[in-house]
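User: two proteins, same treatment. go.

Assistant:
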Amino acid sequence: MKKDALLKCIAETGYNVGFGGRKHWATYDIVDKVPGLIGFFSTAMGVFALVYDSLSAKDISAALVVLGLIGLYISFYDSKKGEYEKAAKAITRNFNSLRDLYRTVQNNQDEARNEGYYNQLMAIENEYYSTSISKQILFSDWYTHYKFFWQYQIDWVEEQKKFSFWRDKIPLTAWIFAAFMISATIYKIVIASAIIMPCP
């Protein structure tokens, strides 16, 4: 295999492994931190509701019930929290191994060694697939995009992948959600203006 093709393969695998590792960390973070935040927020709102009658409104109470349901959904993953952390650590090591392999191949001048490097790549990839957990928590994709593109050192992957801000760094579901919210806002404005406008 040619050096350029091998570098591209390593970077593509690096993207999959790096994103997968960050997704495991995202699930772990959500399961570990969000229930505590929900509990604190709900308790604080309950205390302030004793003082301010406006916080006892039905919409606030409904929002707190929804937060409670979110906490319940997240609790289903709590028993496997340790597994997500263990897998995330192993996959992070895989990603670091791929980075080192990429730099080694980049500096290598002997094409005859490329087959050995390719075999290393396949071994790391197989280890990643055997370690990763397929079931991830809802909305972990959005958090993963943040963790991968904004917190992680991925310059060596970007050398080959050439990520774009609009297509790669923002999740497709975030675009769909934004389009829905904009459409709903425009719809509300149109309806409100139709009600306010006097009849001719």
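Protein 2:
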Amino acid sequence: MAEVELKLEIDAAGFERLASSDLLGEPDETIEQISNYFDTSDNSFFAEGFTLRIRKVGTSRIQTVKATGPSASIFARSEWETPVTGDSPVIDHTSPLMNEFGDRANDVQPKFKIANERRIWNVTENGSNIEVALDRGSVRSVARETPILELELELKNGKSKDLFALARKIEGIVPLRFGVLSKAERGFHLLEAERTVVKATPVELDRSDCACQAFQAIAHSCFRQFRLNETILRSRKNEESLHQARVAIRRLRSAITLFKPMLQDNEAKRLSAEFRWLAGVLGEARNLDVLLPKSRAGELRDSLTEKRAAAYENVIEALDSSRARALMLDFNEWLHCGDYLTHAATRDVRERPAAEFAGEALDKARKKLKKHGQDLSGVDDEHRHEARKDAKKLRYAAEFFRSLFADKRSERRYKRFVGAMEALQDDLGALNDLATGPDVLEGHGLRGLAGADELIIHADKAKLIRSAQDALDDVIDAKRFWR
């Protein structure tokens, strides 16, 4: 198992509390770092998964190129360090940037600066040697600046599980949140418009991956999407980030279901149930977000607005709760160190080629949707909702495994398949809104207010069902991109 480095975010009060606690004591070393990042005018290095920086510590300067994107696998290593004497990059034939970008690699310009004070402790935890780095500083571009307050735990030797044992001790002193952005990513985000939402990004899998590697990459992608939207949600309380945070949890729970043959430990079930709790809290606010724009000015709209504000407060309270923080810590420890990684009974499944596992998982999800969706007009709302959940799981599975089937024929089939899936999900989503709207209003004591019936009876249900059935049939008839 590869070593794990934990990046943890803390607030200003927590920083001071941790720095002065008896847990770590006096740092073994404190260093001042100034890092200047460079890229082409259109940031093509970063877009292709490379970063270029010159870091100054004292009087020494080190130039570092990192490859973290899809191109990283073609190189024997992912990081190149070179001593330099000045503040301008030196790019020659030994640099991967020259190999990847040719003459464009020399046309670089400064993008942002990171100034950081790093306190370092060397800690022994259950016999494992761990470097603890506490960072405080800022990332600054020409127009914007953002603070850095984070903690990094790096395993030098020993067991990955001991990183989490130490993290739990720290959590007992200060609240922790998992960081999913590197300092470089923070800098490049400063160069963009401020984000109000983060949608799922493609999961890059390799056909040489085994099923276990695929699951970890997918789960990490889902968790990253959740954390990025959680950060936005806590500061903005906007409906887009709330919706995508909820989508991220659904994607993660779908991944756990897809990989169920490999995840036979009880912890997988417990974690999925805890994420269902959190998704439910977000869902209460989401339901009001769906109804509010459809309401007219008046008592009903005012009441919905008040209920929505209260629901968002409940969301923030849940996200800040010890239960949610424990869930994030438990999940990450399980993902990297869980018993599912060594369970003898599932070894063959874990080691299966990812593409082989994906093909069977997609066939199974498609078969389930076909079974539950063959007669949408002849079943009740509850059964149509089951078909809607099946459709989501199939869509998520298709997105998870897309990169494993990347030839031209598969790409064409994937586009047609996803187009049909989008139409199906739109129709099933509209039907779900019709079904749940009355219950949402009833649950908040608003069913009797003027305009309530108009709010929830706004579409031709029979027409939507026919449209959904046509879309579902198109999905089933579409050629499978994974074959």
